[in-house]
Amino acid sequence: MRSAVLMSIPAASRGCVKERVASILSVLLLAPALSGCILGSERPELDLQIPAQYREASSRAPDAAVPSLDWWRGFRSKELTSLMEAAQTSNLDIAVAYAQIIQADAQVGIAGAPLLPSVTGTANAERVRNAASTVGTTATPATQFSQYSAGLTASYMIDFWGKNRATLYASEENATVARYNRDVVTLTSIVTVANTYFQILAAQDQLRVVRRNLAAAERILTLIKKQFAGGTASQLDLSQQEALVATQRAAIPPLEVTLRQNIAALAVLVARAPANFNVAGGATTQITVPRVTPGLPSELLYQRPDIRQAEAQLASSNFSVESARAAFFPQIQLTGQTGSQSAALAALFGPGAWYYTLAAGLTQPIFDGFLLESQLKQAKGLQLQYLQAYRKAVLSAFADVEKALVALQQYTLQERLQAEVVAASRKAFDVAETQLRGGTVNLITVLQAQQTLFTAENTLVQVRLTKLLAASSLFQALGGGWNPQNTASLNTDRKPRAQ
Questions:
Q1: Exposed/middle/buried for 3, CB within 10 Å: 0-12, 13-18, 19+?
Q2: DSSP code per residue over 31-53
């Protein structure tokens, strides 16, 4: 709660004047020692259901391969690592989050100011001229005089019920929220960089597949044209192959759009102008998916920045409830003023010019149109909101890990199976093309072999991309890089609740 002390100290006049001023200051400045008692408020029950282990994780050695702090290096791509580092230093969303931390820290200072006395110096000089006046037969001439004063004023409102101290604690928790928000933004930004880079690689892969399939389709078209000229192929056969060739050509522009738009999006993520930015890229097959184990679910509560952000928001709302409840109680205010006042500037700091006042007041709300009651209800409603948000954040975090684990496992399996489909389809197409040149197979079989191969290769690229996205999602679900052996130390910065 806030205490106020109003005081003024004369600029001169030592001796006994100094002793009087010192006694006044000692009373007023010791007033903060009477403050700081925070009313206890009920803490909401969290009722969190934390599973013993993840359903989709291996039951053995859950901490065998937890993510390292620089987890993106596990993909073994120098270009990706460079982009990740550039995003951490240049990303504008992260810069905004840093600016919000500065604002939150400043708000802590604003909230803490009422806990200290407020001191203000004053100095005045007046020149007054009274007009001449006539009362009956008596005339009063005009008068002129000067008035000089100098002093100090101070105020302090005793925070006996802990209202302002609870407000300060709420602001400190909000500053913690801002820091975890920065971590959330940072993690989201670098994961987005990884996903965008993977999409660029997939688009390059698809372009290579389409161009390779286009070349194969054009070879078949050339052969069919020769057979058509020799009378061994029909117009239908020729038209069907021409349609297949045109389909492959038409598939190139959308992939170019995907490639170039993702390069532009990646440029923004690293705060570069798209016109001056380019990506070498490569192939999804060059990316290594690191082995990751998720640790224990209980450790996730300390690794996920969004969970700790929700926890800090809940703590802030607890203190806000305490502050709103303390507003119902009386406010004790101390006021004081001291200084010198004289009609002559030379005598301003003489002993006879010194004055002081000291007062204490108590204010008790009686009826305010239910304002305080409504503010308390609002604070409790916000507390309930953040409580439910915290519960959801925890459950969502567990679900994110489960979904990422199953996606990575199943898409890894699908990639292996789809690679077998591509190998078999390519062999069938090669055999069909050879037999077509020898005239021992019909064109329908060749067309089917071509379309099966083209579809299988495109599907394989998509599966590889999905697997990479699942891997980055798992890192994001685990809160980035961490060391489960140090999770106990992560909670040491939690501020103990004031009683």
A1: buried
A2: GGGG---PPP-PPPP------SS
The set of residues, in sequence order, having a beta carbon less than 8 Å from that of 346 and lying 6+ positions away, is none
**pLDDT score of 483:** 62
- Residue-range domains of the chain with CATH: 47-113+169-325+388-490 (1.20.1600.10)
What pLDDT does 269 receive? Answer: 96
Residues of the chain with pLDDT below 50 are 1-36, 40-41, 484, 487-499
**For residues 405-421, b (16+ Cβ closer than 10 Å) or e, as one string?**
bebbeebeebbeebeeb
Alpha carbon distance 238, 221 (integer Å)? 7
Sign of the alpha-carbon dihedral angle for 403, 404, 406, 407: positive
Nearest to 166 by CA among 379, 10, 324, 12: 324
Within 8 A by CB and 6+ apart from 278, the residues are 263
Pairing of strands 138-140, 133-135: antiparallel
Angstrom distance (rounded) from CA 164 to CA 342: 39
Q: Has this prediction a pTM greater than 0.70?
A: yes
Q: Note the pLDDT of residue 347.
A: 66
Residue-wise pLDDT tens digits, 365-390: 898 899 999 999 999 999 999 999 99
SS3 261: helix
Residue 390, token pair as written in the block:
């915290």
Q: Are 284 and 461 in contact (CB under 8 A)?
A: yes
Residue 139 identity (one-letter amino acid) = A
Q: What is the pLDDT of residue 1?
A: 33
Asked if 149 and 123 touch (Cβ cutoff 8 Å), the reply is: yes
Six-digit token pair at 274?
Answer: 């798209």
Burial status of residue 461 (CB atoms within 10 A of its CB: 0-12, 13-18, 19 or more): buried
Q: Sign of torsion, CA 379 384 387 388?
A: negative
CB 25, CB 155: distance < 8 Å:
no
Q: Which helix (H) or strand (E) holds 361?
A: strand 354-363
- Long-range contact pairs involving 22-27 (C-beta distance under 8 Å, separation at least 24): 24/336, 24/338, 24/356, 24/358, 27/334, 27/358
State how far the Cα of 40 lies from the Cα of 148, in Å rounded to an integer. Answer: 50
Candidates 214, 259, 211; CA nearest to 465 is 259
Burial of 11 per CB tally in 10 Å (0-12, 13-18, 19+): middle
pLDDT score for 59: 66
At which residue do the structure tokens 């044209």 appear?
225
Look at residue 141 and give its three-state secondary structure. coil
